[in-house]
Amino acid sequence: MHLETDRLLIRPWTHDDADRVLDIQSRIEVVKWLGDGEPVLMKDLDEAHQRVDRYAERSAHPPLGFWAVEVRATGIVAGSVLLVTLPNAEAGEVEIGWHLHPDSWGHGYASEAARAVLAHGFDAGLPEILAVSHTDNYPSQGVMQRIGMSDRGVVERWYDGPSALFGITAEEWRAAQG
């Protein structure tokens, strides 16, 4: 999948990106927000190459996937945006998510990439897209609100412990697009 926005190219991760994957995934300020349990920092390029392969596997069933977010003006990969089935999903619930390198925070890249991926998912027929975060990940929750998702409270469903849940239906998305 390739999507373009005004400033971004959303594309598959490649092995040429392994250095950047390592740089992102070896930072506690990024990894502490991913998944549940204790954060696990990436240690070396071998792990980065394995992760690129895993991203490709997770992108094998469109419209789902795990993609690089490249800044078109510089060619630098800001981070990832994803559309995947939630862990332990009983009804195939789909989650959108993002994680960016700290040097790419505060530029609106997460919101811009997420809007493009929401459109991609809804254009492919998904009826609803959810987002979950740690309850104290306020920057990510801010992105969720900026892209039109509604706060649905705190749940203990897909991950160990409580998560903030946001969501948007295809109808809500289309209505907001005018």
Number of strands: 8
Task: Name the CATH architecture.
Answer: 3-Layer(aba) Sandwich
Structural class: alpha+beta
Can you identify the CATH class? Answer: Alpha Beta
Can you tell me the residue ranges where pLDDT is under 50 for at least 5 consecutive residues?
none
Say what the CATH topology is: Aminopeptidase
Largest sheet: 5 strands, antiparallel
Average per-residue pLDDT, rounded, comes to 93
The value of Rg in angstroms is 15 Å
* CATH homologous superfamily grouping: Gcn5-related N-acetyltransferase (GNAT)
- Written as H for each helix and E for each strand, in order along the chain, the element string is EEHHHEEEHEHEEH
Give the strand content: 25-35%
Structure, described:
The chain is of the alpha+beta class. Helices cover 33% and strands 28% of the residues. The protein is built from six helices and eight strands, in the order ββαααβββαβαββα. The strands form two sheets. The chain has a five-stranded antiparallel β-sheet with strand order 1-2-3-4-5, with helices on both faces. Strand 4 (77-85) and strand 5 form a beta hairpin. The protein starts with a strand and ends with a helix. The mean pLDDT is 93.
